Amino acid sequence: MSTGAFDKRDPYHLLKLFSVFSVASVAAILLLVGYGVYRIYSAEKIWDAEQDAVAVGEAIFEQEQKVLLKRGSDGRERIQVEREDFAALDARMRKYLRPFNMYKIKVFSSDKTIVYSTDHAIIGKLDSGNIKLDRVLQFGTVDSKLEEKDKVADLAGEERFNVDVVETYLPIRAGEAIIGSFEVYVDVSQARAQIPKVLTSSVAILFAVLVVVFAGLYVLMRKGALWLKQAQDELRALAATDMLTGIFNRRHLLSRIQEEYSRMLRERRQQSIKDALGFVMMDIDHFKAINDTYGHLVGDAILCEVSARLKRSLRAYDVVGRYGGEEFLAMLPHTDFEEAKNTAERMRQAICGTPFDADGASTGVTISAGVSYSANGGDDMYAAIRRADEALYQAKNAGRDRVAWV
Predict the structure, then answer these.
(1) Catalytic (active-site) positions
(2) Global pTM?
């Protein structure tokens, strides 16, 4: 399996994805909750203003019926305010409206004429294009909407700027008949000014909760990822290692050789770099006799010691593995033919130069070695390995304990 494939399955890669997902989730949750809090709080303030407007409107109508209602020639009651009543009505309206942050009121007749307003300039005007007013007069429903006014005049006649206003239309009834409408303007600027504070505190509390939750999950996942990474590393080591000797097994050894071949070919195509790979195939001489004389446990111990000595004889980036039985194969990157032969001789000396312990007795062990190399990936790796095997065969036929090459 390639390194890239392992990277995609690396638990720490999953942990990074979790971190990215957590940050994105927290951001999305905070954004959605913040928007939701804003909408809910705004709707609540509109509803509160509407309820205040309805209560005040009903109270005004109850208190001011004699001023607001006139009976027509047909005997029906209608909304009408005499001009001489304006001054006294203005004073009472200020008393009604001021405690509820209401700065303006309009009174409409059933034909949409403004028969009274705290803004005298608009009295007598016809508001024919007002859809909200149409709905109130037709269906008797209360209709409210939040508006942002650049400039308004309060009950004292003073101008105010950038005011948030809830405009509420509510019907005026005489029995079952709808005979007019109030339009009440409620200043909700102060309440709206609290929204950033409410929003900030809500989002901050939620952010703290989310950080604690995701941080806890991250710690648990990190521990799990660490445990899984260790398990993966152990499995990889088991899959790549010869169980007896601790060096690479044949399968992983060939995989490493294939990787090195691919690197050499890629560099040659991209950068025209000349390179070579050396191969040394080795076999323990008369190993069957060792097993027959000292037993398989001693034979296994000698295999382990041979592996250790071979590994110590190589450079850090060289690779050696158990090819099969008592055979070993070494791959030597960036190594020409002469260097490969010298390395093979060094490994041979490492084995025969020091006796081995054989169940308390000292015994000499030798190896035979065959050397080949591949320049710039010019031939198939298996062809190079096959040539090293042929050279090993020549070394054995020549008397063993020697290095041969083809």
Answers:
(1) 326
(2) 0.57
